[in-house]
Amino acid sequence: MPPSDSVPQNQPDAESHPDFETLLVTRPAPAVLLVTLNRPEAANAFNTQMARDLIQLFEELNLAPGETSVAIVTGSGTRAFCAGGDLKERHGMSDAAWFEQHLVYERMVRAVIDCPLPLIGAINGAAYGGGCELACALDFLYVADSARFAQTEVKVGIIPGAGGTQTLTRAVGARRAKELILRGRPFGAAEALDWGLANAVFPQEELLAAAVATAREIAANAPVAVRQAKSAIAHGGQVSLSEGLRFEIEAYNRTVGTADRREGVAAFNERRQPTFKGR
């Protein structure tokens, strides 16, 4: 079902961030940031500047999120979310230049993965190579029914190097990931949903509105609690159950002393909506 508060994809409700050459950053709802990869002439492929822009944005969100509680990442247009690394920019690069550029890509994906805010992918088209890796680095994905995914790096003589061998494996399982990565085989939205990479599939025209509706729901919850829950889930998936339970309690305890916890309990007892302040 499409959400009632539909948000047109081409009419964001806020001005673009002036500092980014390759990203459009808008606010479709209070406390919600919409990040649009904006190189449509290159199928939104990464170049060095886009990687630097993403580093700046996500490191800012890590250090000083301000009014932002949730971010959505999508691509410009309907053809591609992100076609991966821009091979035209890379054509003729020396090994040294390639390594230097890839260090920027590595920092970019770490900035995304380490972001404490919930990150929703609105995958509007093809997510190939590094684009698939970026999608896998987000917390969960809503995808257009026309979306396509692939880790095609072995077809050009490299392997996924921006987390793809790790994040895709965690999403779909080791055996499935081995087949997809070793073959470089594309797969569609229905397979992504069936295998656990995607959370839901929508018609293209309903995708962004669905992502914004979910982001609104998350943003209405206590920000500290949301960030701590994300942290506990992410950490717990990498360790034993007993260690994960210990980390969960540490994260839980960080919420007990907050004004938001007191406000949430008071609002419940007073039968009203809570007003959370993120502290």
Give the low-confidence spans: 1-16
Helix content: 40-55%
Nearest-angstrom radius of gyration?
A: 19 Å
Ends apart, CA distance between termini: 35 Å
Which overall shape is indicated by the principal axes computed on the Cα atoms?
Answer: globular
Count of helix runs: 11
What is the H-and-E element order?
A: EEHEEHHEEHEEHHEHEHHHH
Strand content: 15-25%
Tell me the total number of β-strands: 10
What is the spatial order of strands in the main beta sheet? 1-2-3-5-7-10
Give a verbal description of the structure.
A hairpin with a 2-residue loop joins β1 and β2 (32-37). The chain starts with 22 loop residues before the first strand and ends in a 10-residue tail after the last helix. α5 crosses α6 (174-183) and α9 runs antiparallel to α10. The protein has 279 residues and is an alpha/beta fold. The longest helix is centred in the middle third of the chain and has 19 residues, at 95-113. The strands form two sheets. It has a six-stranded mixed beta sheet, sandwiched between helices. A four-stranded mixed beta sheet has the order 4-6-8-9. The chain has helices spanning 48-63, 87-90, 95-113, 130-137, 164-172, 174-183, 189-195, 204-219, 223-236, 241-256, 259-269, and strands at 23-29, 32-37, 70-75, 80-82, 119-123, 126-128, 140-144, 148-150, 187-188, 200-202. The protein is 47% helix and 15% strand. The chain is globular, with a radius of gyration of 19 Å.
